[in-house]
Fold this sequence. Notes:
The protein is an all-alpha fold. The chain contains 16 helices and no strands. The mean pLDDT is about 90.
Amino acid sequence: MLALARWLMRGTPYAAGGAALASLVPWLFWLGAAIAALMTLRKGFVPALPVIIAAAMPAGWWWVQGDVIPLASILLVTLMAVILRERMRWGESLIVGTLVAAVMVQLGIFSPPGGTELMLEQLREGSQEVDRMLTEFANQGYDTQTLATLVVGGVTGFVVLLAAILCLALARSWQAGLYNPGGFREEFHALRLTPKELAVLAAIGVIGMLLGAHALAMLGWIPLLVAGVALVHGFIGIKGMNGLWLVAFYVLLITTWPTILIVLLLGLIDTFANVRARLARSN
Length: 283
């Protein structure tokens, strides 16, 4: 992948062509988003604009076809890359990305074009259990179409935010590999939310609940999760543990909810305790 990044950085035409081609191919939009983010991180927003547009145009065509994820991911990762370049703070970039993704959910950008009525009807026909559950919700006074819209939008927003974070991390690793070897590892291992950033994140979640903007609460935990994951990476790095520990960690993270809760708790504790600094001193 680093060889590809080196070829792309030979000039704007190379990067623009690679970004456009990647965004045009189904399920390769993440590569186009990472290329746009790499150019933004390295050169800034204005010089990277031709590459961003080249990545966004095919993604816009997919938007017209009904797939909003590629274009939303490209625009979101570009915004996060601009903030990371200017502020040099992963926490701020993650918080802004989360806020923008939540706003897109609330605006209904990720809602099905034809509404959720047909989807609910198909679910009812396909499963008696789902039909019974939806009927119970309706009897309790809930609008099932509103709930379905919120769930579909929230899940899609989560996918877009996660894709943007992963693409930003890939672009940052490319940048470090080309111009600052080892820099991304050091930066990611040191990632933690400051108390101020955590307070902003908590305030966003509370305000979202008070205003009925449930997407803010649905996505607001993502930056804390990333901080917890970074803590695990940093711990394994400081202790010099085998990379298989990371493999086992990600398997547990993907397959079990308790692991996610533990990682969130670790990220919260690290905000106030700065666990890695303590570990480094003890070593």
